[in-house]
Automatic annotation (TrEMBL):
Species, as recorded: Allorhizobium terrae
Coiled coil regions, renumbered to chain: 253-280
GO molecular function, one term: polysaccharide transmembrane transporter activity
UniProtKB keywords: Coiled coil, Signal
InterPro entries assigned: HH_AprE-like, Poly_export, Poly_export_N, Soluble_ligand-bd
UniProt protein name: Sugar ABC transporter substrate-binding protein
Domain AprE-like long alpha-helical hairpin: 179-358
Domain Polysaccharide export protein N-terminal: 39-123
Domain Soluble ligand binding: 129-162
């Protein structure tokens, strides 16, 4: 490193020593402006320090400025500062004097110096303070020595100003949305009553005590009743058509059965006649044309019986399908009602949650309006209280405070506005 030599050209060594000592003391005093607060202050994370290092070399009678080590540094999240050559140096919880002494000692040990370098450490920027609660601009703010709660509050813009107009608008908006939700909920309640009436096959919608409280219950019941009657009519028409089809197919099957019996008897008679004709033909008493005609009659009757069997089978298949359609229609009706009831219950639950949210928003708007009025009308700040959250032994501790309480770097100042009895009425 380059050494800056401060020495008298032709004077005795003792005189040079005295002059150089005075020069070193003056050099460090210029670099390290002292604050009474900084002397007792313990560094913490986010603090920024300015380091200056100089060494008095007795043998040469000169001062060496360690500019490579000097500079501005921040206390990291691990509580250390990182210096050239020295590396990570613990700083959190120590005073600037302790850090300066540690730097000089480390430098002497690292470079094997006969004289310990003199280090000057001053705080260039304190870690911030935080404002929370009923302040106009909550957040992080730079710290200045001598800061009090009142000064910190002024930096944050003072107490939160009353915004009763905005709160009133929020209340009206929440109230309007709540009215829409109430209307939807009432419709869902009547819909649920209609679905239950359909599931239980009741002719009318049962009006319970809860439904009687609905202002427009008559119109809602009339609307749902009309829908219920329309759905029941459609179901009835569908089932009636299937019943008529089943009756027709049953009658057709019965007719084919009777026709089958008739043709079976005819076939038996013709077959008996054919047997006689065959016997006569074998004896030469019947013509072959007669025998051929009888065989044709038998064939025609057998073919007719086959057609009847086919038609009967087709009619029975159609009857089974009609019965299945009837069952499917009834099951689909029941499933639709069950699904509709489930959806209605889910929507009712959703409306209840949204209504609770809107009621909470309305209450919050009223409370904020009352708090703002209380903060505006409070006498001598009697409705405002302060507290400081400060880390002690690594744990946050809340301390009661007043406007004149001294704030330390890293503190969180909480401002609370309490409602007066008049504002709560």
């Amino acid at each position: 490193m380059k050494a800056e030599m401060i020495a008298g050209g032709g004077k005795s060594s003792r005189r040079r020593l005295n002059v150089s000592s005075l020069a070193l003391a003056g050099f460090l005093s210029v670099l390290s402006p002292a604050f009474a607060f900084a002397d007792a202050y313990h560094l913490g994370v986010m603090d920024k320090i300015r380091v200056r290092v100089a060494e008095w070399q007795t043998a040469e009678g000169a001062v060496r400025d360690w500019s490579a080590v000097s500079g501005d540094y921040s206390v990291s999240a691990s509580g250390t500062v990182s210096l050239p050559f020295i590396g990570e140096l613990p700083a959190s919880g120590k005073t600037t004097a302790e850090v300066a002494s540690e730097i000089g000692l480390k430098m002497q040990q690292l470079f094997g110096l006969s004289d310990r370098p003199s280090a000057s450490v001053e705080i260039s920027q304190y870690r911030p303070v935080y404002m929370a609660g009923a302040v106009q601009n909550p957040g992080e703010f730079p710290y200045a020595p001598g800061m009090t709660v009142l000064k910190a509050l002024s930096v944050a813009g003072g107490l939160k100003r009353a915004e009763t107009g905005q709160f009133a608008r929020n209340f009206i908006q929440a109230q309007g949305e709540g009215s829409v939700l109430v209307s939807n909920r009432n419709r869902l309640l009547v819909r649920r009553a209609r679905i239950l009436a359909q599931i239980n096959n009741k002719p009318e919608i049962e009006i319970t005590d809860d439904l009687k409280k609905i202002p427009d219950i008559k119109q809602l019941v009339e609307s749902e009743t009309a829908l219920m009657n329309s759905q029941r009519t459609n179901l009835k028409v569908t089932l009636s058509s299937l019943a008529d089809l089943k009756t027709l197919l049953t009658a057709q099957i019965d007719a084919l059965g009777k026709k089958l019996e008739t043709q079976t008897r005819q076939l038996a008679m013709v077959e008996e006649d054919r047997d006689k004709v065959n016997n006569l033909s074998e004896q030469g008493l019947a013509l072959s044309s007669r025998r051929l005609a009888v065989e044709q009659q038998v064939s025609d009757l057998q073919s007719g019986l086959l057609d009847i069997d086919t038609a009967t089978l087709k009619a029975k298949q159609d009857l089974n399908k009609a019965q299945q359609d009837e069952t499917t229609t009834r099951n689909a009706w029941d499933a639709r009602l069950a699904q509709e009831l489930q959806d209605t219950e889910a929507q009712l639950e959703e409306r209840a949650l949204k209504l609770a949210t809107q009621q909470s928003l309305m209450s919050d708007a009223l409370l904020q309006s009352a708090e703002s009025a209380a903060a505006k009308d409070g006498e001598n700040g009697s409705n405002v209280s302060y507290s400081i959250v400060r880390d002690k032994d690594g744990k946050p501790t809340e301390i009661a405070a007043t406007e004149n309480t001294v704030v330390l770097p890293g503190d969180v100042v909480k401002v609370t506005v309490k409602l007066s009895q008049q504002a709560m009425r």
